[in-house]
Design a protein that fits this description.
- The protein contains 16 helices and 19 strands.
- By secondary structure, it is of the alpha/beta class.
- The protein has a nine-stranded mixed beta sheet with strand order 9-10-8-7-6-5-4-1-13, sandwiched between helices.
- It starts with a helix and ends in a 12-residue tail after the last helix.
- Bound molecules: S-adenosylmethionine and iron/sulfur cluster.
- Residues 61, 67-70, 113, 115, 146, 148, 171, 173, 210, 212, 241, 243-244 line the site of S-adenosylmethionine.
């Protein structure tokens, strides 16, 4: 039965880190004036009560992993790129501070990449100190960064901790040597253990490990071994991502192996089920989609208190209405609108240095988008949504229910008069369930593949 369901529902679909999803943002984009106005609106509505979030994209890596779907730039010429990039990011931040008027209260900072730990301790300090020249810390903070175990020093870990960072995530992916060769990413368990131990010793309170299932040459045995090693280090969180095979988007980066080397539908689902069971056995709890956490971690507590939120950074333990994204290709979210920065490093630096916000596309949400956005967030975070409240009603609700009938008969969810509840067995199909609400997707059925598979 499971096998049939997986085959039936394993179709291309969005990951819903936003609604509308990026391919369905308005073709004509967003007026800079609208982006600025909605940013100021969200800031004024939320700065005092909840603070704001910052995402800083640090795009450089020393070597290319052939599975990687992130926006990155491969170079070993640290001296050429680090300082000019940090200077540009700080100029961009200045442009936002001029716009916002009052001093922002920063609740969350996430340094993502690329590889944030590509940057020297001095440059990381320059970045964070530079941000706080014109901002204050909110009364509670959650500062986190992504770290590559092969490119992280104890000094960087200490520097970031001293600057207020208490969480980090390590890119692990897989410990098997055959898999590592295929994805061009060699890293040993010993190296990871050493970095992990430093991080604990320094006092970080949440360590996350990123693993991926569905990579080339993975087998049940190799996954068991990777997970056994991971659990030995007891990370507070584990991201167990489904490999997104999107070679048409990222070009040659993903062509280091053949499609035939990838585990197929049923094998891939089995790797997910196996991982999930092993995490449960070790005391982890599943959070939303792709994430597992120990009950002591804030992500788990956020599920309990219904504070779990999802944005371009993935799942977070608290919601801020405004998330400013700095750096090349970063996406900002003002709740009422989205904006993405120039994806090309040269264009990004040129526009900022000319004194303009480097936005190259965006989307102003309609009233209907805002309602659908709320339902999709509810489904992704709480696995249920309700339209009892008048503000959440949609003219299309009957059609949405119709689209979900088949999933109800497949025992994936229950449809009530005023709400939908996803069953535990339906958790892995939550992206498919969201697609029934995705009016933009339904109106604009894409005729080419633009999304990875849902499972
Ligand atoms: C932007 S990377 C940054 C981590 C850091 N550069 C490193 O490699 O350790 C964040 C995570 O995204 C995940 N990721 C990247 N490409 C992916 C893909 N094609 N499918 C699924 N997950 C992917 C990986 O698990 C990776 O650790
Ligand atoms: S996985 Fe990390 S290190 Fe590898 S290319 Fe992607 S961002 Fe760079």
């Amino acid at each position: 039965m499971d096998t049939q369901l997986v085959q039936k529902y394993n179709i291309p679909g969005p990951r819903y880190t936003s609604y509308p999803t990026v391919p369905f943002w308005d073709k004509e984009g967003i007026d800079l004036a609208d982006w600025k106005a909605t940013t100021v609106r969200a800031f004024n509505e939320s700065n005092d009560e909840e603070g704001i979030s910052l995402y800083v994209h640090l795009p450089f890596c020393e070597s290319l992993c052939t599975f990687c779907a992130c926006h990155k730039k491969i170079t070993k010429r640290h001296d050429d790129v680090e300082e000019p990039y940090i200077d540009t990011v700080l100029k961009e931040w200045d442009l936002y501070c001029d716009l916002l008027g009052e001093r922002p209260k920063i609740r969350e900072i996430h340094l993502g990449g690329g590889t944030p730990t590509y940057f020297s301790s001095d440059n990381l300090r320059k970045l964070i100190d530079g941000i706080f020249v014109r901002a204050d810390k909110f009364k509670v903070t959650q500062f986190s960064f992504e770290a590559h175990p092969n490119l992280t020093t104890k000094d960087q870990l200490q520097t970031l901790f001293d600057l207020g960072f208490t969480r980090t995530s390590f890119g692990i992916q897989d410990y098997d040597v055959t898999v590592q060769k295929a994805i061009h990413r060699m890293q040993t368990f010993e190296q990871v253990s050493k970095i992990d131990a430093w991080t604990r010793e320094i006092g970080y309170d949440s360590i996350s490990h990123d693993l991926i299932f569905g990579l080339p040459f993975q087998t049940e045995e190799s996954i068991r071994d990777t997970i056994r090693k991971t659990i030995e280090l007891k990370p507070d969180r584990i991201a167990y991502y489904s490999y997104a095979h999107v070679p048409w988007v990222k070009g040659v980066g993903q062509r280091g192996f053949d499609d035939n080397d990838l585990p197929k539908d049923e094998e891939k689902r089995h790797l997910y089920e196996l991982g999930k069971q092993l995490f449960f056995d070790a005391g982890y709890v599943e959070i939303g989609m792709d994430h597992f956490a120990l009950p002591t971690d804030s992500l788990y507590k956020a599920v309990d208190s219904k504070d779990l939120h999802r944005n371009f950074m993935g799942y977070t333990a608290s919601k801020t209405e405004l998330m400013v994204g700095l750096g090349m290709s970063s996406i900002s979210d003002s709740w009422y609108s989205f904006a993405q920065n120039e994806k090309d490093l040269g264009d990004y630096q040129r526009v900022v240095n000319e004194g303009r916000l480097p936005i190259y596309r965006g989307h102003l949400l309609s009233e209907k988008d805002l309602i659908v956005r709320k339902h999709i967030l509810n489904l992704m975070c709480q696995l249920e949504t309700s339209w009892e409240d008048e503000s959440l009603q949609l003219d299309e609700i009957d059609a949405i229910k119709e689209r979900l009938r088949e999933m109800e008969s497949d025992d994936i969810l229950t449809i009530y008069d005023n709400k939908i509840v996803v069953k535990e067995e339906g958790r892995m199909f939550v992206r498919n369930i969201c697609m029934a609400f995705d009016l933009r997707l339904i109106e604009n059925r894409p005729d080419t593949r633009i999304f990875s598979m849902t499972i």
